[in-house]
Design a protein that fits this description.
Elements (H helix, E strand, L loop, with lengths): L1 H5 L10 H4 L16 E5 L7 H12 L5 E3 L5 H17 L3 H9 L1 E6 L1 H14 L7 E5 L5 H5 L11 H13 L1 E15 L18 E3 L8 H4 L2 E8 L2 E5 H15 L7 H14 L5 H4 L6 H4 L1 E7 L2 E4 L8 E5 L16 H7 L11 E6 L2 H5 L9 E6 L1 E6 L6 E6 L2 E6 L7 E15 L32 H4 L15
Parallel strand pairs: 1-2, 1-3, 3-4
Antiparallel strand pairs: 5-7, 5-17, 6-7, 8-11, 8-15, 9-10, 9-14, 11-12, 12-13, 14-17, 15-16
Length: about 475
């Protein structure tokens, strides 16, 4: 406790033991902290950085308010904490009441770790769900970047942590749409096991067996997986590269302790997997249009078919303006075009998800150019993918940075993935926040609308006009 007493600034974030540890004696009256925090750190993220950050936070705060996600599950921690707070409030404890009202959560890890925490807070239905700040400790760090928390791994020294804590104290709350994903598929006939090993699935996607008896698929031996996401769901070749990266990292974790090395490895895998020369290395069966039928719901209760150009090999359902390390695939449609095509700016709290297509990685690199964007396919409140027997026996999917290999039907079965709007969560945002609220008339940092002259390019002639990134506006970034 010596560090705490010697540094007054940290009293603003401190939570006493009697609230955190069951059975502790109620101490003498403490001052009400301005910004009490509970900190969750994935000690395995960022190489050795996660472990170092854990030590620093525990030295600056009460060690009992800082949790290693490898040791304690966040749902159990928060359930116990709120049970204690409610009990103390009932007994007239004013400090407990104020802490519950002012509480903020910090989560340090990759995008998958951040999504895990968001899912836990959503599922627990807490009386006043605490807003969440994200520390970038992953490879892409799309979630932190979207809300102004940067994308580079942070410093782990005391000064850096104190600076971050003060940012959390000054940050504003921002509502963000939550998206529910349901996936249904038949269990393997020769086995009673689930068709996908549980370890292969993202934290926020799990088997769910209590399905309505009126659901035809559930009555015929199908398994249902449910979960949520806050940034994106993607399918196709980008998810395949991500899967290769995660597989390699699991096999050789000692090689993935440097963020720059991780990003260069990711780029190399993109080349070896054929993402940069998809038309040459992959048959048309890998095209999204060949793999699945897609339906979208723009108006309540009305499904319509979504036409996917034949050249699209990756599709992204995007909630936040940050994908693949901070790029914005949707961009800012010109107002005249937006009206003509029924498109809007990509708000994070409007109940709509942006659906974007990519032909290959060269198409993705055009996002680095001014006003660059993917192929805008639709904005919808729900989207449904139906997979029937076809040329491919599997595809790859990714949920907020966590990929998996998805088996596809071999017989007359069907695999269904459906995404729908599912409430909102509260995030914490800094002044550098890139996300845009429908209720905020001011533009976020870096907002630029398309020029009238920047016409949409047809999907079919794009490769001819922009082979290997030869467009006039194309530039590699300085640190590429």
């Amino acid at each position: 406790m010596g560090d705490f007493n010697s540094n007054k600034i940290l009293k603003a974030f401190f939570i006493p033991d009697y609230i955190l540890v069951a059975g502790s004696e109620v101490g003498s009256s403490s001052p009400v902290p301005a910004c009490p925090v509970v900190v969750f750190i994935n000690s395995k993220s960022g190489g050795q950085l996660g472990g170092e950050l854990l030590v620093t936070y525990r030295s600056l705060l009460n060690k009992n308010q800082v949790f290693d996600l490898g040791e304690k599950a966040p749902d159990k921690v928060l359930h116990q904490l709120y049970l204690t707070l409610e009990t103390l409030k009932y007994r007239g404890d004013n400090l407990a009441a104020e802490i519950q009202k002012r509480l903020r959560i910090i989560v340090a890890g990759g995008d998958g770790t951040a999504s895990w925490l968001l899912g836990v807070v959503s599922v627990l239905k807490l009386p006043k769900p605490p807003p969440i700040a994200t520390v970038p400790l992953g490879t892409g760090n799309n979630l932190p970047f979207s809300f102004g928390w940067a994308k580079k791994n942070p410093g782990t020294d005391c000064q850096s942590v104190e600076f971050f804590l003060n940012q959390v104290r000054a940050a504003k709350e921002m509502k963000v749409d939550s998206w529910h994903i349901t996936m249904k598929m038949r269990a393997q006939k020769e086995s009673s096991c689930d068709p996908i090993a549980s370890l292969e699935l993202p934290h926020s996607l799990h088997a769910f067996h209590r399905v309505s008896s009126t659901d035809k698929l559930s009555r015929e031996g199908y398994r249902t997986f449910c979960g949520g996401f806050w940034n994106y769901f993607s399918m196709g070749m980008d998810a395949q590269v991500s899967y290769a990266f995660h597989t390699e990292r699991k096999l050789h974790p000692e090689k993935f302790r440097n963020q720059l090395h991780n990003q260069s490895t990711y780029l190399k895998l993109g080349c070896t997997q054929g993402w940069f020369c998809a038309p040459l290395m992959h048959s048309s069966s890998r095209n999204i249009a060949q793999l699945t039928k897609v339906k979208v719901m723009k108006k309540q209760g009305h499904w319509e078919d979504l036409n996917i150009p034949r050249s699209i090999r990756s599709i992204v359902c995007l909630n936040l303006p940050s994908f693949s390390g901070g790029l914005d695939p949707w961009g800012k449609p010109n107002r005249k075009k937006a009206i003509y095509r029924d498109l809007t700016l990509p708000y994070v709290d409007d109940g709509l998800i942006e659906v974007v297509g990519f032909r290959n990685a060269w198409h993705g690199l055009v996002l680095l150019a001014p006003n660059g964007h993917g192929t805008r396919l639709a904005q919808a409140s729900r989207i449904r993918f139906e997979f029937h027997k076809g040329a491919a026996d599997h595809t790859f999917m990714r949920l907020d940075g966590e990929p998996w290999k998805q088996p596809l039907p071999k017989d007359d079965d069907i695999v269904v993935v459906e995404i729908s709007h599912h409430g909102q969560v509260s995030m914490l945002a800094t002044p550098l926040c890139r996300s845009r609220s429908i209720h905020d008339t001011s533009s976020p940092a870096g907002y630029r609308e398309e020029n009238d002259s920047s016409d949409e390019e047809s999907a079919e002639n794009w490769e001819e006009r922009h082979k290997f990134g030869a467009a006039d506006t194309f530039k590699f970034p300085d640190n590429f």
